[in-house]
Every structure is written in structure tokens, then in C-alpha cells.
Amino acid sequence: MPSPPAPAFAAGSSSASTIAADTETGSHELTISGYSGTKGLGVGKFIRSSVFSIGGHSWCIRYYPDGEDKERADWISVYLEREDDASDDVKVRFRFSLLDQVGEAVPLYTFTSDVRTFTSENIWGYEDFIKREDLESSSHLKGDSFRISCHVTVVNFNVAERNTLLSPVPPSMDLHLDLGELLKSKIGADVKFKVGKKTFKAHRSVLASRSSVFKAELFGFMKEIKKATQIQIKDIEARVFWAIMLHFIYTDSLPEIDEDDRSVMAQHLLVAADRYSLHRLKQISEDVLCKFIDINTAATTLALAEQHGCRRLKEGCLNFLKYPGNMKAVIATDGFGHLTSSCPSLLHELLAKLSP
Fold it and tell me: Domain BTB, which positions (predicted)?
């Protein structure tokens, strides 16, 4: 009777493989010179940029001066197109930005995609990149010319197989989960915070490791706080302090926030983050607020940005106020009264920005 076939690998060894996601990044700057001459090309009609190479593939930008379709006839649309004829699919993340006069990306007109799959036939981009009237009334169109930047990251997957003795795979990083459980269990908690009618227990060492302000208060020169078992927190809502302490200081993340409450919550979080020197949380809050700038919020948001040193948020508000009609509408809001009383020095800067 013949013996059974030998196993593919000897006893004591096994197979393993590695999937490596290698990325290659590049950018292409497209200048639209003689912009007024490109208008009237027709809805759905486009002009291609020159071809550029990133990640071993060829690309170009499609510029639609009259919009990609009839519903976007008042908009400028931009798309990224793959130019080579290779049959393989390509995973790509890209970002389109309108550039200001010094070559910096304008936050209100910067759009970053999720990872997209490009074949030799499909295109991806933004049909509502910027309204023509908004571009024409902005300082970003100068001498009938403006610039767009396209930042492209190509992801290539490489698979390598090897025969080896397998070592145990380390578990995923779960420090934030452990710290969250520590706070939830209150084991070893050595400080209490009284915020309104609510009380929160926490750990001095964790707070001090994440915030220089807490470090100074809990271990520094403020002796009355160092010895206190309960600390009164004023001028911060309980839910805001809870979000900072429970979901950010301990887990480096924020809790789920209702869409209708995101703008207001982001304002509170920005103020609290600045107070406790939580720089990453401050930047997250600033990014959220940039997306909510409108007639009703521009003045109060501008005052907030000025008071807490938020450069990008301030620039976003000033750019919004440059558009025809926006400034007049904002002046009629209650927020403008708050702006003039709380930050009178901003009015001179605002007038300088809006002057021809």
C-alpha cells in the first residue's frame, strides 16, 4: 500500500505571507490662464491638463468651466483621469485644492477623497468644486487667472510569501481601550471634578500626562488644587467636560455627536481645548467649524477664532466675508454686534481685507 503524500511543509514549520501597502505621492498644479475665455465651452465639456506621472501611472486633470452636467451649470467641476491603458485597477486617494495668491490651499475649497479605484475608463472628482460667481468675486482669481492643485497618493499592494516558524501575532494596539476601561471602573481614581450638578472621577497622572494645564494644577505650584479631593470646574458645561475627559484625554477620540449639535459642540470644545492646552482637540474642533461657516455663524466664528488664535479658521471666515452680499448679510446678524464689541480691532483688519 503506497504511503500517503508528504505534507507541503515539514512538521514544525508553516507558511506565512505579507501584504504591504506601499504608497507613492505626488502633486500637479494646474493654472487656468485666461479664465474668461474658457467660459461658454458648454455643459459637460472639458479641457485636459498635461499628462503627469505618479505611482507608475499616468494622470491628467479634467477642467469643466461650465460644469460636468446641467445641474452644475453654474459650477466649475474638476476630475482626476487615469491616462494609461494598463488593465489593472489602481487604488488612489486624491485631494483637489483651490490655491490662493501665495500658493496656499484655500480651506473652503479643499476636498479630499476616500480611497477610489481607478480603471482605464472611469474618472473621479468633484462636480461642485466652486461656483463660478464665487470664484469671480474672490481674490483667488487675479489677472483672469487662478490655480488648482491636485495631490495624488497611489496605493500599491505587494504580497510576499515565506516559509517560516510562525511567531504569535501581537494583538492590535488597545491602550486607549484599557485607559477607557480604567476610567469607567474608577479603580485608583484620586481626584473628583464637580461640573454643574455632575461629578466625575479621574486619575491625576493620566490627566497630567495629556495636558500641561492639568499637570500644573495637579502637581505644580497650585497647592490648594494639589491637595483638593474635589475640584470645582466653572464656565464649562458638564457634557463638554465629559467629552474632553472621558473620550479625548483617556481615549484620544470624541464621542458620537448629533449632526445638529456638531457646530455648537465644536465651539465649546475649541474653547475648552484651548483652556487645557489640548492642541489636537483644538485642531479637530477648528476643522469642524470651518465646514459650518455661513451667514448666521461667520461673525461669531470669526470672533472665536481671533480670541483663541485659530489662524485657519479666521482665514476661512475672512474669505467667506469677501463674497458679494455676504458681508452685508452678516452685518445684519446679532453675531456681528458681538464681534464689534468683543474684538473691535478685527474691524480694521476686516476693512483692509475687503477693500479693493
Answer: 189-258
Q: pLDDT tens digits, residue range 99-140?
A: 998 888 998 999 999 889 998 777 999 999 999 999 999 999
Q: Which of 295, 268, 263 is nearest to 281 (CA)?
A: 268
Grouping H, G, I as helix, E, B as strand and the rest as coil, residue 89 is: coil
At 127 the three-state DSSP class reads: strand
Contact 290, 108 (CB under 8 A): yes
Give helix 262-275 / helix 279-290 axis angle, nearest 10°: 150
Distance between CA atoms of residues 35 and 37, nearest Å:
5
From residue 297, alpha-carbon distances to 18, 175, 214, 264, 317 in Å are 50, 38, 31, 10, 9
- In contact, 74 and 131? CB cutoff 8 Å: yes
How many residues does this entry show for the chain?
Answer: 356
